[in-house]
Amino acid sequence: MKTYKTTLRTGINRTKEFERKGLAEFAVNVGVKCGHACKYCSSPTLLRMHRSFAEAGRSPFEQGYSIVDPDTPARVARDARRMRRRGMVQVCTTVDGWSPEARDEDLGRRCVEAILAEPEWTVRILTKSAAVVDDFDLFERHRDRVLVGLSITAPPTKTDVVSVVEPYASPLPDRMAALKKAHERRLRTYAMFCPLLPGIADAPSDINELVQIAVDSHAEEMFVEPVNARGPGLRVTQEALESHGYGREAEAIEGIRRAATWSSYVARVIRDVQRSVRAAYSIDKLRILLYPSRLTPSDLKRIRRDDAGVVWLGRS
After folding, report:
1. Which parts of the chain are beta strand (E)?
2. What is the pLDDT of residues 10-41, one digit of tens each?
3. pLDDT per residue over 208-237, tens digit each?
4. Rounded distance, CA 88 to CA 21, Å?
5. CA distance 41 to 21
6. Residues 113 and 157 in one domain
7. Which residue range(s) make up the domain with 245?
8. Of 57, 143, 173, 202, which is least surrounded by CB within 10 A?
9. Cβ atoms 105, 31 nearer than 8 A
10. What pTM, to 2 d.p., does this model score?
């Protein structure tokens, strides 16, 4: 994978959207194109106008390359010192601070170090890389100020098919082992099961397995999200699955590319997650991130009748 370098303008940013999600008030990102290359990722749609794509001469929707800023930790350190309002910072929100190109520069660790060097900041880690365990020694020195989350998008039985849609992320069992190790080392943990892809992680049995992971890791919170239909991510995911012989899973992805079927998939996932969490976990710890604008009126009404754990986002 080719890595391009860019210079970002900020270090620690306010993020009202992630604050509404209940994740963090602030965000740090170490680049604009993540080397994990998840097929369904919606970040290219959000970041497509960034000048670094034109500078690299690449489309934001292309695969096979990353864009990173090696100088991010210096700006993060500056902002951590200067900013008067302080709170929870998520590392990262649109890219991964422990992706291959980020690890080459040790960006995740250096950013977290810079934040924790100043008082009153807390950090939420989110990554698909099991290599984050190498930084647990740092987190342990500030264990009350760090929340560790591994993005686990399906149960381990789906490792092979998930490797197609998340080709450069750590294998699912490795991510699970990293989350377990975080708990064993008495670090604070939370669960992130986003997105629950149809045909891969949306069956009740899949959801039950994921909820049990949250229980076993003593997760303080559990975040769940239906797959985002914005941009070309669903089409790219479908094509990747088809090319690797996962026809049934590809059909399931194709099936939600229409608004009505996406809506019914979302309503079903929410119902099944609530049912599983009520049986094995705690509904008070559930956070289902939901943009309702594409829901049909009937599905919207159905969800509103029981919206325990639902975090309503967007304008609707």
Report:
1. 2-5, 13-14, 26-28, 31-33, 65-68, 88-91, 122-127, 146-150, 188-189, 191-196, 222-226, 286-290, 310-312
2. 999 999 999 999 999 999 999 999 999 999 99
3. 999 999 999 999 999 999 998 888 999 999
4. 13
5. 18
6. no
7. 128-316
8. 57
9. no
10. 0.94
